[in-house]
Amino acid sequence: MTQDDKLLDKALAGDDSSRRSFLAKFASGVFAGLVAPALMGEAQAVSAAPAEQAQQDLVPLPDLPDAVEGEHPVVRMMQDLRRALQKPMAERKWAMVIDLRKCTGCNGCNIACVTENKLPPGVTYRPVMTETSGTFPNVKRRFVPRPCLQCNNPPCVPVCPVHATYMRPDGITIVDYDRCIGCRYCMTACPYSARYFDFGNFYGDSEGGERQPYELLPTPEYGRDYDRASGASPIGNVRKCHFCIHRIERGDLPACVLSCMGRATYFGDMNDPTSLVSELIAQPNVMRLKEELGTDPKVFYLV
Amino acid sequence: MMTTKQRENTISRRNFLKVSGITAGGLAAYSALGTGFSRISAQAVQDRLRTKTVYTACVMCPAECGLAVRVENGVASAIYGNNHAPLNSGVICAKGASGLQMAYNANRIKYPMIRVGERGEGKFRRVSWDEALDYIADKLLQIKAESGPEAVIMDAGDVTDRDPYYYLFRAFGTPHTVEHGSICDTPRRHGPKLMFGGKRVEPDIMRPVMVRQPDGSLKNDYSYRTRLIVYAGWNPFTATRIVYESRGTVEAKLAGARIVVIDPALSNTATKADQWIPIRPGTDPDLFAAVLRYILENHSDDNPFRRYIDWSFLEYSQGWEEFEQEFKSWWDKTDPVNGLNYFTLEWAEQRTDIKAETIAELAHTFGITKPAAWVWGMNGIGHHYNGYVASIIGTALNVITGNMEVPGGAIDTEIVKSSKGGNASGGAFNRREVTRRINGRSVTGTQEQLHMDWYGDWPAAWDDVVGDYPRRFNEGVKLRYGPFRGHEYPIRAFFLRTGNPVITGSNTQAWVEALTKKNGDDYNVDLVVYIDTPFLETGMYADVVLPEASYLERMSLSDIYPSHPLIYLRDFVIDKMYESKSQYDIMMALARKLHEKGDPDINPADFWEKYPTEEDFWNEALKVSPGRVNAGVPLPYPDYPVNYRILGTPDSLEAGRVTIDDEKKEIRGEPVTAQWIRDHNGVAVWPMSWYRFNNGGVLQTDSKKVEFVWDYEVEKDGETQRKGRYAKYNKLIEEANDTPPALRALGWEKYPRSFYWFETIWNPYTNPDYVQYKDEYPFLVVSGRIHHAMSGTQMVDWLGRIPTEDLWMPFNDERVVEEIIVGADGPAPTGRQVRVPKGTWCIGVIQMNAADGARLGLKSGDLVELSTPLGHSTRGKVYLVETIMPGVLRLPLGGGGRFSPGLGKTYDFRDVSPNHNNIVDPDALSPIMGQPAYCDMIVKVTKV
Amino acid sequence: MTQEMLAERVGLYSLLRALYTYPLTESLLKEVAGLTLPPTSPLRDDLAKMQSSRNADALNLEMTRLLEGPGRTPAPPYASFYLHDKQLMGPAAIRARNTYLTWQAWPDSGERLPADHLALELGFMAYLADLAMSSESDRPKALAASYAFLAEQIIPWLPRFVQSMLQATDVPFFIGLAGFTQTAVQFDLEWLTSLQSTHPQPAFSAPTPN
Lengths: 303, 944, 210
Prior knowledge:
The complex is a heterotrimer.
Chain A: H1 3-13, H2 19-26, E1 67-68, H3 73-85, E2 94-99, H4 108-116, E3 128-135, E4 138-145, E5 165-167, E6 173-175, H5 185-189, E7 195-197, H6 213-216, E8 238-240, H7 245-248, H8 255-259, E9 265-269, H9 276-281, E10 286-287, E11 299-302
Chain B: H1 16-20, E1 37-39, H2 42-49, E2 51-57, E3 66-72, E4 75-81, H3 94-97, H4 99-103, E5 113-115, E6 124-126, H5 129-147, E7 152-155, H6 163-172, E8 177-178, H7 186-196, E9 201-203, E10 209-212, E11 218-221, E12 228-232, H8 244-254, E13 258-262, H9 268-271, E14 275-277, H10 284-298, E15 317-318, H11 320-328, H12 345-352, H13 356-368, E16 372-376, H14 378-382, H15 387-400, E17 410-412, H16 427-430, E18 433-438, E19 441-446, H17 453-457, H18 471-475, E20 477-478, E21 488-489, E22 493-497, H19 501-504, H20 508-516, E23 518-519, E24 522-523, E25 527-532, E26 544-547, E27 556-558, E28 566-570, H21 583-596, H22 614-622, E29 626-629, E30 645-647, H23 650-655, E31 659-661, E32 666-668, H24 674-679, E33 683-685, E34 706-707, E35 712-716, E36 719-723, H25 727-736, H26 741-745, E37 779-784, H27 797-800, E38 808-809, E39 815-823, E40 826-836, E41 843-844, E42 846-849, H28 850-855, E43 863-867, E44 873-881, E45 888-892, H29 905-908, E46 938-943
Parallel strand pairs in B: 7-8, 7-22, 12-13, 12-16, 13-14, 15-34, 22-25, 25-26, 30-32, 37-45, 42-44
Antiparallel strand pairs in B: 2-3, 3-4, 5-6, 5-26, 9-17, 10-11, 18-19, 20-21, 23-24, 27-28, 28-33, 29-30, 31-32, 35-36, 37-46, 38-41, 39-40, 42-45, 43-44, 43-46
Helix pairs in contact in B: 5-21, 6-21, 7-15, 10-12, 10-13, 10-15, 12-13
Chain C: H1 2-19, H2 26-33, H3 44-50, H4 56-68, H5 79-83, H6 91-102, E1 105-107, H7 118-134, H8 139-154, H9 158-168, H10 172-197
Helix pairs in contact in C: 1-7, 1-10, 3-10, 7-8, 8-10, 9-10
């Protein structure tokens, strides 16, 4: 054994532990052996799983008693999602179904979306529109939540001069904040007014001038942590609903779907005939907004 | 460095560098390029790693849903519903999702403060906790020495985690520990209280419910069996959040249920109804009575299309015959206002403005459709002088049609939810013996018998209620009943924790006068302490303001409104902000202070020695959970005896790790603890069952039956005993030979044995005393509750942008305002100017029928003044719509005229938004329990 | 001597990190030009290609097209793209970020670049190499971690990335860079493997005992 070898052996064995214990202790789990150095202490459990066990990276299903007569819609949709995620991206097509008969107009979806995506004042991906009509006492009021409709023929995409917005293979139209130059053509092109410009406002600006702690957190959209508080993107970009891609890709439901107080919003893969959304889209009472424009939205309304 | 050996395509197992051929120093120098990484501190790692989800319970409103809060880098960043909590089953409303802007609001109370200006000026200085508590403790001990501890009121507001305050103040010696229920909806709860010992009748639409299966397993049942729900004056979608009623109502409807909403305005709940029946305000009892009369008159045992009554209710009830007789005794009487016989369809049409056929159809439909639930609400019934009557008839309607406790029928949530509190509520202190000198003689009784309402003017004011403030602040207390009859004492200290009576507790001006009234140089109420997270109007009148930790920063329990026992843990989610303290912290700190200053009633063995940690305290409160009996079908625990009280964790009960105490009739599993709940997704759930009234079951009445007579005698062991909910009060009245003034005003000597009827006030259509005002004051005014924009959360920007129900609308004009923020020394200008563009902020408006508006020459947005016959007035912008019946105005409760600078933009528009409580009759306290009659008022409208 | 070997690894990964960090600078290219290898080194040809240009502007133009974007680039330098069906910020990025934090290592670029960017992953290898070099007590763990990170995080996608580069460019510098990266990292992996296999102990993929 050369001197090098001895040194390396020593290095591997460590000064204070036998070779065996070193390997037993450190050759494990997290990245198959990548472990915290002693200076980190034992407290730093890291949840990352081996790459081949990607399913373990998904958020866990709710731990509920077995169902008799019906099932929890969240569990059903999360299972639908898991099935979809196992397919190649191009083979899944995300769709949303909103049952207007069940929307209670509470705006829970709206605010859950605002908090999830850390939207600034003036940007709401999912407003709930109220329409009242008739004359007393024959009056009705209807609530229409309006996310991005995720058109199959999105009018917003071709107008982008820098190709910053495009439809992913799974049908979600996204904005590449790194490329978006903020020209807002797409906002004009969207027939549903579902796009918003981020002017760089913060809620704290009009309340004491200090930004609130949650406004300083990075924006999680598209799985990136956009450090908006530093003045960077998505400030100056056009923003829109993206079905919470960052949530669905870890097996979780979009913020609005999870929160919906009337359980009126459903989400899943419309390419999967067994999914809940596929079942609902097949109902006779389905409609879409401004169908006549040929935008072919993937947000369906039950009326 | 080693020499290079060349071994083509073979790699020495050890000598990468040699093989790669890189020479000494060649690469090492590139270290200078840097790794691009830097070492960060362990704390910084923690901050970056710690994206966690914490299960907790909401307090943005008292529905207290189960939450899953995401915390990033120690900052709460998103609030979701907890899927495991059956009450909300994962959903959350806008208000719940907005909790971040409450916890992180710039206008939070940050530090303890002591007043430096006059009350109402809002001038404070920051002090240490020590100084603040010194101040409070000195005053308390002075008051106790001079006037007795009963001169102190602790009002612990509208959330269920009030126990630490109750515990402390009961230990201190006052029976006046109060919750918000006293000013909320007591008339609404009266029927269930009398007849079941309960409070709130709700439809059986909480889903899922966990039910015992024939094979012994527990499964979640998602099915809706309800066929009909009648919501009278009840607006679960917008006004109050018995949260499952939102998804449950629409789901039940899709599953085939018919939904009928009775409301003067098209509420959001009404938008989902099969039928919206507009009703004249204050006439719900009239409608209910007409329905009951129709059912009694048209019921037929033989005709299946008229078989309204399910006589099986007689098996678990008593006194129906007497109730029915009393009810029928009105049938031949003639109404002095409309000249018709009471409770007929035509009579009801005149009063309610609902067509007789519609009422008949409603009664018939309710009679034959089963299972069904007749549900009545807060503003519609609870806020009227005679709401008791509607509540009693509504309860009877559910009982006689056989809908109580059947699957898909109606449930009294109060008597089926989990117990909590126990010793932690400090009830034992109230049973302590105390002695007072009255008219020169020494009298002994219990602490509780010093209560200003129960033994004063309002003996039936149950449930920790103080019904009669602020009048008692001005007039003091003179006890009428019990051992301390004749005892007089002033009210000298008012502690308020969460709540804002200056805006929401009867007439605003009356509160302001009571809190600012002086005797010489001193205020009449010596000490006002305001404990809360937001800074609301009542805080402006406080001598000491204490910052309470927001609900994301403290621990406690929640148990509210479910169909079967559940309990959630409210857990620490984020670190306490600024210098705020939790209720437990405040209780202990003030207790120590009092102890240090020699208060003999504060014993360390009851406080820090007994509950060294916050969790110890809440574990005490959990010892009585779930505390309900093993009753109903399917039996929750088929292996355990029926009607035994159940205690302990669901898993220990399931596994048989229990002791069965036949003497106490208790099944005791392992005690529920905060840690157990934390380990089980933040919630403990025990099984659902139905038919829980059979054989006594969950009923809390003396007879363990549904009681239609509330003061009756039974023979027991050769003795005659008075029983029934009113018996106790009537005995006091008889002993003292003194009728409570409010009963005297009705012409009664004591509480009635059974069915009773009286009219509401300020209603020219039903009460002859007010017919004279009909022409000059043509509008009846009601309040509507916009849940997400109520008293305590109007500084939340997200909610200020959500228009709702034609009451909370973006009607602001453009303004540049001097910004005021609640700082270390109270509200103070920041020197900044903030522009609020037109139409960007919702304010409370006056909802008016468009035809009424046209007749008055008004258009939407016009500023008008509403004035009452009593000379009270308020101003606001009208919104002319088709969604309210003519002759009725609706104002948001607590939605306008808000003058605390802690309310941000809502404060900025206080001059153009109406304060409904400015026009409430300050003396109109409903006669049984003293609740303000918020919704009984008439006005005229003048354009400003 | 071992110390020097360990230092060489720090240099190697620091260099690679720099070469994948946009933009390339004249001074970096000058440093690359100064590197010499013996004629027998398998890295020599690739190094020669890399040394063929010192025009940073021109190379940055190509680097923009190849790696940076905007838009879909021919060779996205992100692990997730290759491992998770062409999506970005997949689980691989989250794993990388968690790994950095486990070692109290934080990219100087903060969260601006996804954690699975090649420059960050190589930079992290440099960080571990530096730790192995400079701290005797951390050395065993740092080397074990280096092996694991290389084997489980970098190698699963690097060849496909390199292939994409080679297919997409005809600029000698990038052809050389691709080959150089592949070969050098492969060498290091084999060296690290040999360290592990010296010891007849459980494989590195044994599950975490907790």
